[in-house]
Amino acid sequence: MAKYNKILVTGGAGFIGTNFVRYVVANQPDVHVVVLDKLTYAGNADNLKDLPTERVQLVVGDINDKQLVDQLVQKTQAIVHFAAESHNDKALHDPSIFMQTNLMGTFTLIEAARKYHVRFHHVSTDEVYGDLPLRPTLPKFDKFTTSSQYRPSSPYSATKAGADLLVRAWVRSFDLQATISNTSNNYGPYQHIEKFIPRQITNVLSGIRPKLYGNGQNVRDWIHVWDHVAGIWAILEHGEIGATYLLGANKELNNLTVLQLILQNMGQDRCDFDFVADRPGHDLRYAIDATKAQQELNWQPQYTDFTAGLQQTVRWYQNHQSWWQADKTAVEANYAKHEQ
Ligand code: NAD
Ligand code: TDX
Asked: For position 127, what pLDDT does the model report?
């Protein structure tokens, strides 16, 4: 029996939210899910359309809509909060919507959660901790832990850090029954094609040369989205109120290596890509120490063979061309405005 039978999932039609809802439907037969999603360019109602309607209900709306949030929160036992503007490159050109959704939207939700004493889980990113040196000088600073200092470096990560701090303050001041997870870069099915891995896969599938920022040496710590959503479920069920958990799968790779694995997997020459202008303020390296989550939640990442996960992801985009093709021209046209 699940601890919470009625859950509200914000952003459940986006990449990680979709995988989370599908995980709950597959593994928790007693749980009913209401998804609250604005269906921005990053959300897609089709992601959920094959799921049983008696298990999953999609409400199209904004987390900033206080009245709607109040109505939905009143009827739920727990909220899992994914909804966000999530793309760093977009935030560099248009930060205002990030303030609105990531900060104000989170504020609206935690106010409702406190009013109705509803359990709240806030999904966040390792980017709130800023970045790490490419080659660690002191072992102490080797990876992010739950005691790492908050020092976000981008407009996106600053809004996520702000939202985390709101949740922490609501726990302390109002006894909000909340937990937070900070997770490293996810990959897998249903990820929007603006993001690094799906962008390069769909570039190859569209006859466009992949694009690598700067010198390609920046490091990301990859986790398969299915491991992330299992970790979030474990926190919802077993997490300590007020606690933060870091979820990661120990898979640090630089961007050049990931791109060359994609090219190799897709039968391309490993040099068939272009270096383009670097992202302003580009974080050098992220790395997660997930020991606490592993010890306290009995959670372990399962999909740790990155090459196999990447291959499965390539196949997914090959087999779901109608899912992404309509967006491709606009996504690339948008990138072309800023890349030389
Ligand atoms: P995404 O951009 O794919 O999906 C975001 C979803 O939120 C979309 O369905 C969108 O329609 C919805 N949304 C946006 N604004 C909304 C609003 N105002 N009201 C209601 N719905 C709204 O993002 P994602 O990659 O699935 O990320 C989900 C969460 O996980 C975010 O909070 C993100 O910060 C966090 N996160 C992402 C990663 C990653 O690698 N993608 C890693 C760590 C943490
Ligand atoms: O075309 C590209 N070429 C390239 O070299 C793109 C889109 C990205 N990159 C680089 C930038 C990053 O070093 O690849 C790396 C990954 O880029 P993104 O997919 O944009 O992810 P990142 O900025 O690392 O942030 C992601 O992980 C943390 C998610 O988008 C965030 O939502 C999450 O919080």
From this structure: 98
The mean per-residue pLDDT over the stretch 266-283 comes to: 97
The CA-to-CA distance between both ends of the chain, in Å, stands at 54
Residues with CB under 6 A from ligand 1: 10-11, 13-17, 36-40, 42-43, 62-64, 82-86, 101, 105, 123-125, 160, 183, 185-186, 192
Per-residue model confidence as pLDDT tens digits over 316-328 = 999 999 999 999 9
Sorted by sequence, the CB contacts under 8 Å of residue 59 that are 6+ apart come out as 34, 35, 36, 37, 68, 72
185-213 burial string, b = 16+ CB within 10 Å, else e?
bbbbbbbbbbbbbbbbbbbbbeeeebbbb
Does 86 reside within a domain? yes
**Is 214 inside a domain boundary?**
no
Q: Which domain holds residue 149?
A: 6-192+223-252+287-304
Assess whether the C-beta atom of 125 lies below 6 angstroms from ligand 2: yes
We report the CATH number of the domain holding residue 167 as 3.40.50.720
ipTM of the modeled complex: 0.99
- pLDDT tens, residue by residue, 103-137: 999 999 999 999 999 999 999 999 999 999 997 66
pTM above 0.95, yes or no: yes
What number does the ligand 1 atom closest to the CA of 18 have?
26
The number of beta carbons lying within 10 Å of the beta carbon of residue 28 is: 18
Q: How far apart are CA 338 and CA 334, in angstroms?
A: 8
Residue 209 CA to ligand 1 centre (angstroms): 27
